[in-house]
Input
Amino acid sequence: MKIAKKPVLFMLVSTGIILFLMLIMQPLQVLHFRDEISVLFPKGIIALEERNLLLIIQALMLLIIIPVYILTFVFSWKYRADNPKGKYDPDLVDNRIAEYIWWGVPLVMTVIVAVLTWVKTHQLDPYKSIQSNNKEMKIQVVALQWKWLFIYPEEKIASMNFVQFPKDTPIHFEITADAPWNSFWIPHLGGQIYAMPKMKTELHLIANETGDFRGSSANLSGEGFAGMTFVTRASLEEDYRQWIESAKQSSNVLTLEEYDKLVAPSKNNPVEIYQLKDDTLFDQIINKYMHPKKNE
Amino acid sequence: MFGKLILDSFKHEESQNFAVLMMLLTGVGIIALISYLKLWKWLWREWLTTVDHKKIGVMYIVVVLLMFFKGFGDALMMRLQQALSVGDSHGFISSSHFQEVFSAHGTTMIFFVGMGVVFGLINLIVPLQIGARDVAFPFLNAVGFWLFAAAASLTMVSLAIGKFSTAGWLAYPPLSELEYSPNEGVDYWIWMVQIAGIGSTLAGVNFLVTILKMRCPGMTLMKMPIFVWSSLCTMALVVLAFPILTATLYMLTLDRYLGMHFFTAGGGGNPMMYVNLIWAWGHPEVYILILPIFGVFSEIVPTFSEKRLFGYVSMVWALIMITVFSFIVWLHHFFTMGASPDVNAFFGIMTMVIAIPTGVKIFNWLFTKFRGRVHFTSPMLWFFAFLLNFTVAGMTGILLSSPPVDFQAHNSLFLIAHFHGMVIGGVLFGLFAAFTYWFPKFTGFFLDEKLNRYAFWCWLGGFLLAFMPLYMLGFMGATRRLDHYDASTGWHPLFIIVGIGAAVLLCGASIQFLGLFWSIKNRKKNWDHTGGDPWNGRTLEWSIPSPPPVYNFAIIPTVDQIDPLWAVKRGQAPEPQQRHEDIHMPINTSMGLYIGILSLVFGFAMTWHIFWLAIVGFIAIVACMIIRLSGKDEHEIITIAQVKETEMAHLRSMKAHE
Amino acid sequence: MSKPLTIHHQDTLEAHADTRLPDPHQDVFSKTTLGFWIYLMTDCLLFATLFCTYAVLHNNTFGGPSSRQLFDLPTAFAETMILLVSSVTCGFGMLSALKNEKNKIIAWLAASFLLGAAFVAIELTEFTHLVQEGHSWSVSAFLSSFFTLVGTHGLHVSVGLLWMAVLMAQIFWFGVTVFTFRRLIVFSMFWHFLDLVWIFIFTFVYLMGVI
Output
């Protein structure tokens, strides 16, 4: 076979085929899994902005990667040892212009991406409120072992492994943990932030479509970590109001004693809705870590 | 009497029992083989008590191969579990076992494969490339190795006795504190990493002094091979970064053993401090792993392009820039911890800046090939694979360096795909290139070229199949370290594909493993007839016989330009200023081995709270040090006559093989 | 590989008379001292990490007393003076070594030893007192970082004491040789380094903790 007699050609062509197959895998995956690819097909503007930043940086990077790939293949072919047409210049060891180009162009590229990053990092600061005509809503989140507790201090209800809010409403999450570190992540709506005991982190998200979105913990927190998923439901205003009303009638009441039971490790907890007795529960949870326990 | 060690510690789940059995059988098998071949005296004299940097380098690589076997096994288990554990099925191992497996996988690969590759290569190559007969502190070098081996042994012990850590390869608190990880797992992890870390620091001191003080006449810093430059920068990183790891692990140890509150959730502790400190070490660590590999390619590409490295000065400054900048990017490992946008953006931008010198190196390698005569030997095939995979992984690194993007990718499989691209596409392919390149130097024969090529295809295809889908999985919200997920996530088909990719990688690794034995069996057929320079090399290691004599150079060379052997071949070399002389070489010592064994005992005893044994072990280590440091520096002299006889014998054996 | 013909000891400081044999120890001082400097730098970084941690955690008293209430400045000052003088006596020991005065070296080292031992004793007393009053290292992050930073320095001093004892014995038995002289240089570097670290501890932990 001709190609077998030319090992370099065989190698380059085979590698090319493998790379090409990898490349077409990408759009095929995208078409097949579409809605599950939460980061690329988000449902809220925060996640949308984050995705667009990713795509812009990716496009800029391709301006460097594609030439590198082309040079790799071209140089491998043109300057292979058995090619009589390849010029051989063993003392070509330096070229000032070439150095200026490959120090300079990436530097320019970096400056562009850096400016973009600076601006976007400030715009997409998780602690920054989202500008909207609708009033911001506060939901407090406590990562436990191995479930998520959502506290609605104004509505005086709480829920386990389930959070619901109206669409197009900016949500101000206050997040802590009564467990090892976790990370609060709803990829369809935006990036994550750590949930740490004794600390309070904040995340501002908004859902621009109705639907149920998957949330999970993105930081290892022990044996039951894989089961720490929760449902995020963005609904219409009326449906949200109805849910709040029925929650206020819930037979489960989240008192401090009930909360202490919840802190004990448990896995794969089903969804629970509670009435909330004390709307300072969240602050009390954080304060637990600030002073020695009274009985010690 | 036995601390926390009880009979139950020897019992495991079924899958673990199997692994332990395999390990014990392998160990027993090796011992039986050595006994059968009556090689104990030889082993003791030639290897266990040696202070010869070449032998120490070989031993590092042997440990690397053993630990890679274990780490790869961990990876296969993880991929199999994730391909099976969907919906109602929960795979074949329990959650806590899975968590032990991924913690062990990361720890093994970084500390015992990665660091082993770094110190193995530097031991083997640096003294030869600088025209030295030895390293600055041969005994310290041996101690560094035996501490490394002791820590690796502790890893194997942790497989058989008790449980390993389930807190990941970096053991973030509060999860790694007593409250949430009360058993011996995190303690095992602490001691194996601590012992290995001290070994690395000692080795770092040794090579820093070796490179700065023992270069042959005429070899100024700007005439050193780039591999030596990259080793110099790597050792600077080791010496500056590892003390941070030592101190941080020390504080975690105090938290766990004396009830302190450095990083606990309560008591005023601050887990964020741990994360900052551990990554202040951790980021330089990943550059420690990759810089020697950059050096390796800077040797391989010029040799197989028959052309000098393009832009030597640029390459040196790129290395220095990377070294310095690697200390000011650490926060990019935890953008999601909630720092202000000013802080996050600063570290993100610094991370992008560090990509510039890396890119410069890639262009310089490419333009070394430009107008060269490129030979696609095995090392160059691995370079090709590196170029394709490392650049893409580096690109995803730039994506991750922008905090808002990182918020959506942190701790997801996107991150896993990125860093595996760096360590497999970079470190591992670099190791394979270095291995195939320098193997003939230390053995005198080649590895089977055809098997190398098959392995290359398996690794190239298998790596892409096993890691490209992970980027998409990350975008689908899949986090790392999951032992189970719902079918509704849609991840299952992709996990099956990556499982198949892992199987292809297994083929590649198996071909390489068997290929090693096959090549040894066929060594007479693959003999290097050139007498030490099979690749038409450019640097000093190719000017001495293969395998090199214990003293490396019969006459210390004198150089006056880069690529000194190339200069000799072109008739441009200066006259050697040295002549034949009696050579002083340090003699063997068993102290290094003893310190290693005692460290293993100490680490095990501390893990299980067998404090009387730990104290005894510690005192014994101190005693060994005092004995060694009270003695006289003993050397053996190799006379001029013996040197000349060795050189003659080599020439005779070359003629015999023709 | 043929077997070695002789085992070579070099016992004395005199340059080798036989010029055919290069002195393998000629360069050993510069390699050893450079190597030890680099080691000291790693130790310095270890202390820097502990200092950083103390800086971050020193206000985390978890409801307990702060440094202002717990630290005794006169004691710390006495420790500082003791360590400084022990550095001076160590320096005099080195001068005697240059003059090959075996007994004087041992005497000066013994003085450093006694002062160093006094330092450790005072520090242990301070620690015991704190623990007995209920301010042990497991009470708060502040106390954990205090005990660790100061205690690690004390551990280094204790190692120095052991090293000193071994060196005194070696000088007693072997006198001043290439090896013992080299070890004296390295030891004195270590001892002065510990003094320097203590100055930082005195300033940043005690002085600034009380002011």
Observations:
- The CA atoms of residues 90 and 188 of chain C lie 7 Å apart.
